[in-house]
What we know:
There is one protein chain. Among the domains are: 1-102, no CATH class; 140-251, no CATH class; 262-292 and 307-420. The protein has 27 helices and no strands. It is mainly alpha-helical. It is elongated, with a radius of gyration of 36 Å.
Amino acid sequence: MVDFPGGPKAFEICAKFCYGMTVTLNAYNVVAACCAAEYLEMTEDVDRGNLIFKIEVFLNSSIFRSWKDSIIVLQTTKSVLPWSENLKIVGRCIDSIASKTSLDPAKITWSYTYNRKLSVSDKTAGDGMKFREKIVSVPKDWWVEDICELDIDLYKRVMTAVKSKGRMDGVAICEALKTYAVRWLPDSVDSLDSDVHSWRNKLLVETIVCLLPSDRGVGCSCSFLLKLLKVAILVGVDNSAKEDLLKRISLKLYEASVKDLLIPARPPQTTLYDIEMVLSIVKRYMMLSHDLDVAKNEMGCTDLVLGHGSLLSVGKLIDEYLEEIARDPNLSLASFIDLSQSVPEFARPVHDGLYKAIDTYLKEHLSLTKVERKKLCSLMDVKKLTMDASMHAAQNERLPLRVVVQVLFFEQVRSVAGVQKLRDTSHSTTNTDEESEKTAAEDCNSLEKQMSRIKIKEDAFQEKCELAKQSSKNSKSGIQLLPSRSRRMFDKLWGFGKGHADNRSSETSASSQSPTSMVPGDTKSSGSSSRNRRHSIS
């Protein structure tokens, strides 16, 4: 009886049938009874209407017509292998399940398990429906929770059959894989790393990766793929599975959030997060974006998911990610610069996010040398800062003085251009719009030429600032940022030349007192200088 398929209970069913006693078959014992009857050769050749025939009728008329019974029977086949496999019960159960998943949801009349929360779109669509209509409405992914009870090997075969039918879209496939991962993968990192379940977790992740749909990443969300990548790194999956995930993530990077990109670093890395992995993903994204743009132009493809809008999203994402990882004391300057430069200029039209990241890095890495601070700040283009960021940068003591001067200069250029535009608008009866823009552009060019001719030596400049601070303690009327010589230098910088200084003195004075320009050489009536009112936002 040791090798008897199904054990004593299956033998009892066969014995009762032989003695004409009533036998009760159900989804839990029919497979064992079928294997036992085959072992005992209870075929039609021995007696008409024998047990094998009765079981076959029961399977076709009841089990394979029922959704949940098909799943239960498939689960019981594992205890009687290889008999259930040789008798093709496993294959028939899989085919029954896969066929039912591809049916039109409107034709589903059997019960199924659906405990997941409705998406926002589903809730919105259901708000205007009557209560009864909500009950009978069947979602496309109605089947994913029931098959989550299968072991990984049977689950893989069922999902392979579902995909082979060709009637299930990538979104439903990904929802099924996500639900199975949530059901069986542990939540804690310690459980993932434990030796007890490490082999099982590794097999589970590799199976899910190989079952992902090949639809250019449209089906699965980037958040799910990145979570899968984090687990894959922890459990140590093979390189081919990680490579597949990286390719898919690269196509969907514009959908990711900063939290998704916070991949824990593994030894021998000393940083909190795996910066090299994120850098690799960004470079892949940029290469794919370029290649797909070429394909779109050459072949006229319209189903490509990458575009200019997605590039802008990636640029903003990386700036926010840089701000987050800048708090890591072990993050090297080279890694910060490499990741920042991985984003092209056109993907970063505004540098406010990059400025916040640089400021955070300067705040957390106080040991940077003067050369390193200049190298770090060279990543930022002060002309691309908004007014709020410029105001903050002008008062930021962590920035090199040259950067502060550049911020003040271009803020002054912006103010002058604005005043010039307003003046030209008031005289629109005599000047056309084109002439006004030309005049403002000429003034800005003149200022930029003067800026390029003036060479500021930072060491001398800093000494003068220290002298100014010392002298400011004895000042009664207000605090000055720079000594008189430096102020004269800035007056020369912000003037319009000999021919224009007198005519536009009132405009220059108005703009220098504007809160947006923050001119360090302002008069005493402007109160305390911007240099002494520097603060930081984190």
